TrEMBL record:
Binding site for NAD(+): 98-102, 120-123, 129
Residues the record lists as binding Zn(2+): 172, 252, 268
Catalysed reaction equations from the record: sn-glycerol 1-phosphate + NADP(+) = dihydroxyacetone phosphate + NADPH + H(+); sn-glycerol 1-phosphate + NAD(+) = dihydroxyacetone phosphate + NADH + H(+)
SUPFAM superfamilies reported for this sequence: Dehydroquinate synthase-like
Positions bound to glycerol: 125, 172, 252, 268
Record text on cofactor binding: Binds 1 zinc ion per subunit.
Cited function: Catalyzes the NAD(P)H-dependent reduction of dihydroxyacetonephosphate (DHAP or glycerone phosphate) to glycerol 1-phosphate (G1P). The G1P thus generated is used as the glycerophosphate backbone of phospholipids in the cellular membranes of Archaea.
Originating species: Halococcus hamelinensis 100A6
UniProt-recorded name of the protein: Glycerol-1-phosphate dehydrogenase [NAD(P)+]
UniProt GO MF annotations: glycerol-1-phosphate dehydrogenase (NAD+) activity; glycerol-1-phosphate dehydrogenase (NADP+) activity; metal ion binding
Domain of life: Archaea
Broadest EC class assigned to this enzyme: oxidoreductase
Length: 352
């Protein structure tokens, strides 16, 4: 008997364009969501977008409550859950970068309430995904979370954000190349379930972004549009897989370790991009393919070196030699890269 079943949860409304922030209320009304919205945002995102979203809801007669979070942590999720219960919220709206969106989608999952994603930066591909990413002690969890019912991405707001946030989003997409390699390796060596559709979509998203690199330019609002669509597509790949595997391999483990070793030094996307240069070398050796990753990052203006990330060489070596410990996810790092090998890969690729 055929006994497999699968749930693929995707957003119903994806609204991308100039000045669409005020259409959040329409996107929500169209979903027949009831009750008071709870806005989950972060300090800058509140000023540049969440206040406008709150005013739009107020104009329709539903005064939202706003919670400001400053970090991705389980305690921040609990705080949001508590406020939502106290206020009797009907649904949650995450407004900001990857951190407030992750917290809002995880809180929505606990509360069993609808979630709407309002990205203010094209900095990460968690905008659509049904996963949350949270550090806890020495580990980094990829947690099941509520995928958004709707996404509202205002390209005007996103284009006004610092340019490095957009280059970080591009690098998060470019890292899909190595994430998919790791996933395929885990499939071959560890019988990890692999989805051809999710793997192909993830890699194709990276290819399209690299092919369109020339239209991704500072000061061009169209860039926000191009990158946002790629981020949505990458998130869809994660939803199809019901895992972050299509977009997170060893390069992400490296980045998560850097977050612990050098907190706040660089953006998530920039760290995974440099991680991808290193892990492409580990996968393919010195046949030049790692240069394709490095050159794609460089064309977009994303960092390719430790210096560019603002971390010292020792941090890169420490992150690379300990990255395999952070999560039970089989990758090219296997049981670990020793210090001499880490030096070799980081030097040959020019990362240090
Ligand atoms: N769940 C998933 O599938 C995924 C999750 N992630 C997670 O997302 C996080 C990384 O996302 P990232 O967006 O870099 O992190 P943040 O949410 O921390 O945002 C990065 C910075 O951008 C600022 N910012 C956001 N929007 C604007 C704007 N319009 N103008 C000016 N500044 C702005 C934020 O300021 P402020 O905080 O003051 O508002 C913050 O300083 C990580 O925690 C990562 O693990 C990444 C990819 C996938
Ligand atoms: O950042 C991600 C995909 O880009 C997902 O993060 P995780 O590594 O926590 O699964
Ligand atoms: Zn990522």
């Amino acid at each position: 008997m055929f006994d497999k079943s699968t749930w693929i949860r995707l957003p119903r409304n994806v609204v991308v364009g100039h000045d669409v922030l005020e259409e959040t209320t329409d996107a929500v009304a169209e979903l027949h969501l009831d009750g008071q919205p709870l806005l989950v945002t972060s300090p800058t995102a509140r000023a540049v977008a969440a206040e406008r979203v709150a005013e739009s809801f107020a104009a329709t007669g539903t005064e939202p409550v706003t919670v400001v979070v400053e970090e991705a942590s389980f305690s921040a999720v609990e705080r949001v859950v508590g406020t939502a219960r106290d206020e009797g919220a009907g649904f949650l709206v995450g407004v900001g970068g990857g951190k407030p969106i992750d917290i809002a989608k995880m809180a929505s999952d606990t509360l069993e309430l609808g979630f709407v994603s309002v990205p203010t930066a094209a900095s990460h591909d968690g905008i659509v995904s049904g996963r949350g990413s949270v550090p806890e002690g020495d580990t980094r969890h990829s947690v099941a979370a509520e995928p958004p019912l709707a996404v509202v991405a205002d390209t005007g707001v996103i284009a006004d954000a610092p340019w490095e946030l957009t280059t970080a989003g591009c690098a998060d997409i470019i890292s899909n190349y190595t994430a998919v390699r790791d996933w395929q390796l885990a499939h071959r060596l560890q019988n990890v379930e692999y989805s051809e559709y999710a793997g192909a979509l993830s890699r194709m998203t990276a290819e399209m972004l690299v092919d369109n690199a020339d239209s991704i330019k500072k000061g061009l609002e169209e860039s926000a549009w191009v990158v946002m669509k790629a981020l949505v597509s990458s998130g869809v790949a994660m939803s199809i897989a019901d895992s972050s595997r299509p977009a997170s391999g060893a390069e992400h483990l490296f980045s998560h370790q850097l977050d612990r070793i050098a907190p706040g030094a660089a953006l998530h996307g920039h760290q995974v991009g440099v991680g991808s240069v290193l892990t492409e070398y580990l996968h393919t050796g010195d046949d030049g393919r790692w240069r394709n990753i490095r050159d794609a990052l460089a064309r977009i203006g994303a960092p390719t070196t430790a210096d560019g990330l603002g971390v010292d060489d020792g941090a890169v070596i420490e992150a690379l030699t300990t990255a395999h410990e952070i999560r039970d996810r089989y990758t090219i790092l296997g049981n670990g890269v020793n210090e001499a090998a880490a030096h070799e890969v980081a030097t040959v690729t020019g990362v240090i």
